[in-house]
Amino acid sequence: MAPIDSPITAQELEILSTKAIAAKEAAYCPYSKFRVGACILTTSGEFVVGANVENAAYPVGTCAERVAFGTAVVAGHKSFKALAVATDIKPAASPCGMCRQYIREFTNGSFPVYMYDGEGSYKVMTMGELLPDSFGPGDLGI
Ligand SMILES: O=c1ccn([C@H]2C[C@H](O)[C@@H](CO)O2)c(=O)[nH]1
Ligand SMILES: [Zn+2]
């Protein structure tokens, strides 16, 4: 059987993971003390990072994934190759439901999400696996 092609190169994954893990340091999480870092690789080859930013009004806080995607989109990026998310726990955390929908807006079902645990090991899942039967721009005819 032919090997499944990796969606990104080993070198890209090395940079992506290093940046996501480093981004944990930028987290503002005085309430949960749960640091999350994220990094996106754009189709144009740029890396955009994010971290969770909490708020005294707890529900107002934002996850690392949405900070990263929002930052990338306002910088003009609309096309993305991969996302890495890093936490300090084991097994690795996966994006919350709100983030899955947020990410889905800018990705398709084969988009890979690499999830790193606190020891630097990862699991990878596609957006189609994380959010099956999703609702997206196409459902509005966009
Ligand atoms: O995938 C995740 C899961 C949680 N968080 C944040 C939200 C909150 O600040 C803290 C605890 O839930 O972690 C993320 O940023 N990404
Ligand atoms: Zn989230």
UniProtKB/TrEMBL annotation:
> Which positions does UniProt annotate for substrate binding?
52-58
Residues binding Zn(2+): 63, 96, 99
Can you give the residue ranges of the CMP/dCMP-type deaminase domain? 11-138
- One GO term describing the cellular component: cytosol
Q: Which cofactor does it need?
A: Zn(2+)
Q: Which PANTHER family match?
A: CYTIDINE DEAMINASE (PTHR11644:SF2)
Can you say what this protein is called?
Answer: Cytidine deaminase
